[in-house]
Amino acid sequence: RLSTAIAVLNLDDPVLVRYLDWLQGAAGCLWGDCNLGSNWKTGEPVTDLLGGAIGTTLQLVGASTFLAIMCGVAVGIVSALRQYTGLDYSVTFLSFLLYSLPVFWVAVLAKVFLAIKFNDFLRDPVIPLWFIAVGSVFTGLVVGAAAGGSLIGRVRNFGIVAAMTAGVLVYFNLTGWFERPTIGIMPFTLTAVGFALLVTTLSTGLRNRRALYSALTVAGIGVALYYPMFTFWRQVDESWPMMAGLALLTVLVGIGVGFAWRGPDWTRSSRTAALTALPVAAMLFIERALAAWPAYFDAPQIKGRPIATVGRYTPNLEGSFWIHVLDSATHLLLPTVTLVLISFAGYTRYSRASMLEVLNQDYIRTARSKGLTERTVVMRHAFRNALLPLASIVPVDIITLVGGAVITESVFSWYGMGKLFIDSLGDNQQYPIMAYVMIIGILAVAANFVADLVYAVLDPRIRVSA
Asked: Which of 32, 123, 272, 287 has the maximal Cβ count within 10 Å?
């Protein structure tokens, strides 16, 4: 075995010669002749190891990074706008709490409560009354505090949200939703209209009627396609490239609807319609995936316990495209929740501090003194400038995650970049480690370059010269 290692690793050659040989193979990646060495025990090329590991890591961290950024920034902005309120203190406490939690502990808790306990619940999926009461009150308090306003307004919002939450949970019990989950045409319609109103409010404001009509038109198109899409899915062979094509078509339809309504600035109408079209189309996708839940739940390999605790897929599972979509989603759930909880805290703190700093600037007071609406002041003048500090943080964080979520991948048995690095380090595999360091170094340089470009987009005072 020792002689094999000496021969494969060329240990009889000087260190400088071995490094130059490796560097020559690495340089071949520039023209498609990549040679980064191999695993000296198994003989597997490092390029094959990296190909599988990078794909696994991107699948693992892609959704979690997107959700952490979106949710963290949104909650941080709302917390800054409600400074020194109960919501602000609660968000601050929760952020510090999540930021201080060790990843492996959060992962173990996720396994216990979101997988083992929830799978046990699915044997007899009836939500207890105490949970309905507590969940309704908690949701009402959170939304009421976030909405702000007068005491009467907060109480009204609390009552509406608490009643809606209780109604949804009771609806789940009465319809056996966990056994045959579905969105349903009425909830789909209400949610689509809600997305249209929310996106319009954030994008242009409800006073821009053409943008509002564009968003509502897109929502109406989604509702009209609710039943025909089931027929469409039965007539085609589903695949991820086809889903990407449908997503692109969705954006183009939204842009076309906005252009048809036009208004003072047709680009605003198109932007609002396109942003509304994406979540509406996503609901159509989710509805079709949920239709495959009973078949997935009853599969012999699943055994009535769909939320997985380890691995990225169920071995020997056979079925349609939608069965495998559900399988991937259930395996992604726990590691995604773990990574989101940890990353969410940091983005919340960064965005809150940045927004508070911007809100105290002179140009914000000037904008308010001119009589601009609060939505215009926050979304058009404050929000964009508040993103500047995040422009240097987010790209670097993404590259760090591409390097592998070492602990998360180890706990949930995902063989990504982090697991590859740890296993190679423990097994004295120098070539995978060198390739890992090279890739992370290149991505780190690229991340800082992207950060500079994002600065130029967000801040008109900065221009990138060719």
From this structure: 272
